[in-house]
Amino acid sequence: MSTPTSDILIIGGGVAGLTLALDVADHLSVTLVRPALDDQGASRWAQGGIAAVLSPDDNLEDHVNDTLIAGDGLCDEEAVRFTVTHGPKAIQWLIDNGVPFTPDPDPAARYPYHLTREGGHNARRIIHADDATGRAVVEALVNKVAAHPRITQRSDLTVLNLLSDHTGRCIGAQGVDSEQRLQALFAQHTVIATGGASGLYRHTTTPAPSSGEGMMMAAELGATLCNLEFQQFHPTCLFDPDGPAFLISEAVRGEGGHLLNEAGQRFMLDLDARAELAPRDIVARAIDAQIQQGTQGHVWLDIRHLGDTAIRHHFPTILAHCASRGMDITRQPIPVVPAAHYSCGGVATNHVGATDVANLYAIGETAYTGLHGANRMASNSLLECLVYARSCAQHLLSLPRSLSQSIVTSNYQASTVQPNAHVDLGALHIMRREMRSVMSQYVSIVRSNQGLAAASKALAGIKAELEGVDKAMSHPESVRLKQAITLAQLTVLAASQRHESRGLHYSIDWPDHCALSGPSKLTLAGSGVAE
């Protein structure tokens, strides 16, 4: 077992993790655990762009108000103002680091880069790199990280749990490498940037979504989890039962796309004055209702009226991908369905990413900052990654080095994992598939007391089955599956305790808002969900 020590250990290499690494590496040593599958994670697949007040015709107060409205009464207004205020400087940082945002071709434009509009926004404030913004940002930052001499990348390591000393302070993490050897990484400060929990569901908008493993690793050390019940389903994922997940950006509707039902009629006009540009929770429920009433299993997203030139200019990636699957979106509407997309809840943090656990931080989708409330507004996600990663970096750089010069690495509790233990991996795969089916059936866009009770019972049964297959939790895949199932159980618990419908949580048994509603908070120890 190797035991390298660094100033900062960052687990996760999406936009949040990469930004933090670059912001601190000139002054602190960094170990960045960035498995190869991070290239298939949520950051790279973010198409639409990043929301920020950039045009002289826009203003911060409007962005704040739009976010508060989309969050349906549960946003932390201080967090919203903090994020929105720091947005423009974060975008300039990306520009300075070589992100190739799409320029505005209009010589009279008031801002040099093209800004689009998405659901919930009252103005054009989404800066983008064509329709592949996440890929452009990740690639630019990855190149910078690779060239930095003080950043050590570990692409061979799968982290399984965090480590703490006898005082409960986080001192690093433990996992297995590509040769199935158990390894520990120690650090003065550990930062989780592992993404959300969309992988708990059967249909998602990314090929390899995380299942909240980072959230659970933090919870196992005592961190508080907030608002797990608010899982966002993106309204428009390409419907193709025989192919992989593919997101159809909200910018498609922002540029004028129409949602059509089986009869070819626009249905959002009668439901919301904002029509297709209503917040995602409203649009996703409307699409789900149309699917339940129909027979084809999807609705249509139509952009034919935009014209061939505009479609090729604004959406080259979507056009090419759909063409590779036999669809010409200049001549036919796109079949779309809602799919699990973004976790509005996560590990509770403050403005610098600090958790309840000393020396443990969380940033990006794995964190709960209070920005999104009960529903995330379009393109506020990458903004949150950037703003909080940069804030966390400033905090870490400001800490007196004399206070954290030594780490006691001899008294931590080692994992019971035996990487080469014999376990039926096929059985684990089936259990994970069963878990996702349960969550998709009972804990998705529309919920009920009866469904949540059925989910709770089914998840407990799957966990018991897992413990029967690997009682000691000796195999790494058993550990990761147990973390996912436990987070699913906590999500069901949070949903069961919210006796109202708000934002992304809609219950047929509690259809109205509760006047006293607030964020939900859970700890693993106090949840009653067995570890």
UniProtKB/TrEMBL annotation:
Catalyzes the oxidation of L-aspartate to iminoaspartate. This is L-aspartate oxidase. Pfam families: FAD_binding_2 (PF00890), Succ_DH_flav_C (PF02910). The gene is nadB. Its cofactor is FAD. It comes from Vreelandella lutescens. Residues 7-382 form the FAD-dependent oxidoreductase 2 FAD-binding domain. Residues 432-512 form the Fumarate reductase/succinate dehydrogenase flavoprotein-like C-terminal domain. It is found in: Cytoplasm. It catalyses: L-aspartate + O2 = iminosuccinate + H2O2. Its main location: cytoplasm. Keywords: FAD, Flavoprotein, Oxidoreductase, Pyridine nucleotide biosynthesis.
